[in-house]
Amino acid sequence: MAGQGQTILVADDMPENCMLLGQILELAGFRVILAGDGERALDALQHNGVIDLAILDVVMPGINGFDLCRTIKANPATRLVPVVLVTGLSASQDRIRGIEAGADDFLSKPVNAEELRARVRSLIKLKQYTDELESAENVLFALARSIEAKDPYTQGHCERLSKYSVEIGRALGLPQEQLVALSRGGIVHDIGKVAVPEHILNKPARLTPEERKTMESHSIAGERICAPLKSFKLVLPIIRHHHEKLDGSGYPDGLRGEAIPLLARILQTADVYDALATDRPYRKALPPEEVFRIMRQEAALGWWDADLIGLLESAFSREGLRSAGIG
């Protein structure tokens, strides 16, 4: 199977090695960008459009292969680019360093042409799957933002909830995968409103019991919309349960106390804050001090998690949160 025009970056400070790898890959149908050191490779990643895979020599002057791999994986724009480290070093410690840097595969010198082509094809196929996954996520994010855009009073609501929720999660010391779920949950938590008729969604007067039932179905609809994405496994409970209340009076399942998933309670805390701290058709935004006073009163009624409210209030008291453009 020949390449389909995907672009591969090859970085090696030995010109003969660079040329050899480039020729093998070009004959296999790939477009190849050659870089003579780590700095030029990094420049190519930043300025040459989409790169589908990077093959990096470990031992290079300046930025070595380990450091360049780490930089690629730390950047949200390139973190899904597969990285193959090429090394003449056989010590297991070097492979461990590569794994810790985020490398997807390794090749040993001298490189076998058949092995190179086979590994590249396998990783390119994997990259295509992750690209499709990322595209599906982006479609959901775009849909969620289009719902938000219909109401001028909720402009920026999704991004604020993402940031607030992640701040609370960090204060709790949650692992990275849960912080990512909170960030995603902030964007898509109300995506189920796409199933709610606009005359109900935008009704300025009090909803009838039947209309209220329709509105409250949005959390179940949102869970159903996002369920096919396996990467959203931790996000689904956030979508379904962020309108529950600790005393069991929330929806859709009437969960009580710690039966409400922690990530849903975190986003709920952020959602309540944002609802009070932004303008609404029936009132102006309240100052943070007043918002937290009201939230503590409601927590005493058994609605919200007082500990999470305290963590968000502490985050707002830190300069770091304000300088991040929150609040």
Q: What does this 3D model show about the protein?
A:
- The longest helix has 37 residues, at 113-149.
- Helices cover 55% and strands 7% of the residues.
- 34% of the residues are buried.
- The protein has two domains: 7-131, Rossmann fold (3-Layer(aba) Sandwich); 151-323, Hypothetical protein af1432 (Orthogonal Bundle), CATH 1.10.3210.10.
- By secondary structure, it is α/β, with parallel strands linked by helices.
- The protein has helices spanning 15-27, 38-47, 65-74, 92-101, 113-149, 157-171, 176-188, 198-201, 209-216, 218-226, 236-241, 262-277, 288-300, 306-317, 319-323; strands at residues 7-11, 31-35, 53-57, 83-87, 105-108.
- Strand 4 (83-87), helix 4 and strand 5 form a beta-alpha-beta unit.
- It has a five-stranded parallel beta sheet, with helices on both faces.
- The chain is built from 15 helices and five strands.
- The model is unreliable at 322-327 (pLDDT under 50).
- The termini are far apart.
- It is elongated, with a radius of gyration of 25 Å.
- Helix 6 (157-171) crosses helix 12 (262-277), helix 6 (157-171) crosses helix 14 (306-317) and helix 12 crosses helix 13.
How much of the sequence lies in strands comes to: 5-15%
Rounded to the nearest angstrom, the distance between the terminal CA atoms is 53 Å
Q: Which fold name corresponds to the CATH topology of the largest domain?
A: Hypothetical protein af1432
Compute the number of helices: 15
DSSP, total strands: 5
* Strand/helix succession: EHEHEHEHEHHHHHHHHHHH
Helix content: 55-70%
Strand order of the largest sheet: 2-1-3-4-5
The profile of the biggest β sheet is: 5 strands, parallel
User: What is the CATH C level class of the largest domain, in words?
Assistant: Mainly Alpha
Mean pLDDT: 87
